[in-house]
Design a protein that fits this description.
- The protein is α/β, with parallel strands linked by helices.
- It is built from 23 helices and 13 strands.
- Strands 1-2-13-12-10-11 form a 6-stranded mixed sheet, sandwiched between helices. The chain has a 5-stranded parallel sheet with strand order 6-5-7-8-9, sandwiched between helices.
- It starts with 7 loop residues before the first helix and ends with a helix.
- Bound molecules: glucose-6-phosphate.
């Protein structure tokens, strides 16, 4: 296939981008009272208003052509058919099978994967119900009060984000903690307040060879055995989630206490699998299944809806317009919901690890921008820190606002204020404030003409800055499932248009390799021959500090 940037639609979009200075969102809204209605779409309990983007009907139509040109539909079919669309790892990409609630068949190499998926869900149900009801007893005969999930990256961020997001559904009787960093601080601080007799560890690792996870797991194991005085305690206090039964057994966890998943589940797409066990423990299996159902509804929408009504495709195309044609290098996600505070962090991995690539699926160099830097923080806090740059800086930062209409915490007028702030931010980004408006305000405030002239440039907001508004009724398990799946499919569409493999992550390997070598150098300085001057000097400083192990 020719590179996407040589397609007629791409060229037309480039021409439109050259004349974009003439397009004013304010004016577009003034001229078309139906703009917001026309540029909104509802699916699976989510309302997307994308009318505050710098687009008109012609631009949207040309963007839609990219879906045809890149054969997104064909690739979507290949994905659901279980083809190895992760071609550099020769793996199928079937996270949709994990949340399949209907009768759509999912196969890998001709084998139906659904019996295995349903079997693990049943195992998760039995186990989570036993732990939550107090029927699962620890080595000393007591029920569990705390779960510590040890994992990193894709084996941690999803469950952690979801558990936080669904905090309102959790009971204080079973607290769930997450430990990911190899920095001993995190594990130490977590264990400090826990009682080994009532603590359950979930060791979540697809490969069961990840340095950070295995290091934390071994330390946790020693803590548990030390406190309970018996190796046999491991059987009641440790379970594993992995694809690697041999390593799980070698670690000392009975494989009866192992929850399996499969190589066709990518780490950052795995919260729907047994990697989601901490979610089921935190909020119950029923709610975990509602999360799956919400994601499944979004899958079916993504599969069936035409481009112009397809929410993931629309978000993907707007992202492409903003980054490839309007030059945005980053994308902000601002949830107006404190419990969604880690949504930006989660999406950072989902998006940047998937689409932060510089060669096509066939290994050809890419000469257009691919995945943006994804970042964000909850509102309103974000307004009081970096929104200055989004409103008046020299960079274009397209922003997704995520807003639940109802709060789980109805206290006073807090939620009304939260909603007003969110809507106001997207309105401000769109309309800005002209020099004439700013001047009129200053004059009305009684400011002297020289002072007005001095201050005026600082008071102008250029506006015309793109944002999407994603409204949810409330952050329920189903709505959250749909929201996460929406972003997953957006990432898929963008990866296909950019022609890259969204499902590998070779870029994380080099640092791991070098860290392994440096650990050898710490143990044996002669292994450091050939190190570059900077690294050698830093190793030496570390050695002189005297704590190398
Ligand atoms: C995700 C990545 C990566 C992975 C972690 C943990 O897509 O592959 O974040 O999830 O490195 O790997 P393990 O689950 O094998 O420990």
């Amino acid at each position: 296939m020719n590179p996407i940037n040589q397609s007629p639609a791409w060229r037309k979009l480039q021409q439109r981008a050259e004349g974009i200075g003439k397009l004013s969102m304010r004016q577009l809204f003034a001229e078309d009272v139906s703009r917001a209605e026309r540029m909104s779409v509802d699916a699976c309990g989510i309302h997307l208003d994308y009318s505050k983007n710098l687009v008109d009907d012609d631009i949207l139509q040309q963007l839609g052509m990219l879906i045809e040109t890149a054969d997104v539909g064909g690739w979507r079919d290949r994905m659901t058919a279980g083809d190895a669309i992760n071609n550099t790892e020769q793996r199928a990409v079937l996270h949709m099978a994990l949340r399949n609630r209907g009768d759509r068949p999912y196969r890998v190499g001709g084998d139906d994967v659904m019996p295995g998926v349903l079997g693990v869900l049943a195992q998760m149900r039995a186990f989570s119900e036993a732990v939550r009801s107090g029927a699962w007893l620890g080595h000393g005969g007591k029920p569990m009060t705390d779960v510590v999930s040890i994992g990193i990256g894709g084996s941690s961020l999803g469950p952690m984000m979801v558990c936080e997001a669904l905090q309102a559904y959790q009971s204080p009787a079973l607290r769930v903690h997450f430990v990911s960093n190899v920095d001993g601080a995190q594990l130490t601080q977590t264990l400090q307040s826990l009682d080994a007799e009532t603590t359950l560890f979930v060791i979540a690792s697809k490969t069961f060879t990840t340095q950070e996870t295995l290091t934390n797991a071994r330390t946790a194991r020693a803590w548990c055995v030390d406190a309970l005085g018996d190796e046999a305690a491991i059987a009641r206090h440790f379970v594993a989630v992995s694809t690697n039964a041999d390593e799980v057994a070698a670690f000392g966890i009975d494989t009866d206490n192992m929850f399996a998943f499969w190589d066709w589940v990518g780490g950052r797409y795995s919260l729907w699998s047994a990697i989601g066990l901490p979610i089921a423990l935190a909020v119950g299996m029923e709610r975990f299944e509602q999360l799956l159902a919400g994601a499944h509804a979004m899958d079916e929408h993504f599969i069936a809806a035409p481009t112009e009504a397809n929410m993931p495709m629309i978000l993907a195309l707007l992202g492409i317009w903003n980054s490839n044609f309007l030059g945005a290098g980053s994308h902000a996600v601002i949830p107006y919901d404190q419990n969604l505070r880690n949504l930006p962090t989660y999406l950072q991995q989902a998006d940047m690890e998937s689409n932060g690539k510089r060669v096509t699926r066939d290994g050809m160099a890419i000469d257009y921008a691919t995945g943006p830097v994804v970042w964000g923080q909850p509102g309103t806090d974000a307004q009081h820190s970096f929104f200055q740059l989004i409103h008046q800086g020299t960079r274009l930062v397209p922003t997704d606002f995520v807003l639940p209409l109802r709060s789980h915490y109805p206290v006073g007028d807090h939620h009304a204020k939260l909603v007003a702030n969110c809507l106001a931010q997207s309105q401000a980004l769109m309309q800005g404030k002209t020099a004439a408006e700013a001047e009129a305000e200053l004059v009305a405030a009684g400011m002297a003409p020289e002072a007005v002239a001095r201050l005026l440039p600082h008071k102008v907001f250029p506006g015309n800055r793109p944002s999407n508004l994603l409204l949810l009724e409330q952050v329920t398990p189903a709505a959250l499932g749909a929201l996460i799946a929406l972003y997953e499919h957006k990432i898929f569409v963008q990866g296909i248009v950019w022609g890259l493999d969204s499902y590998d992550q070779w870029g994380v390997e080099l640092g791991k390799q070098l860290a392994g070598k440096l650990l050898q150098v710490f143990a044996d300085p002669s292994a450091g021959a050939g190190l570059d001057g900077s690294t050698a000097a830093l190793v030496e400083r570390y050695r002189r500090a005297g704590s190398e192990k």
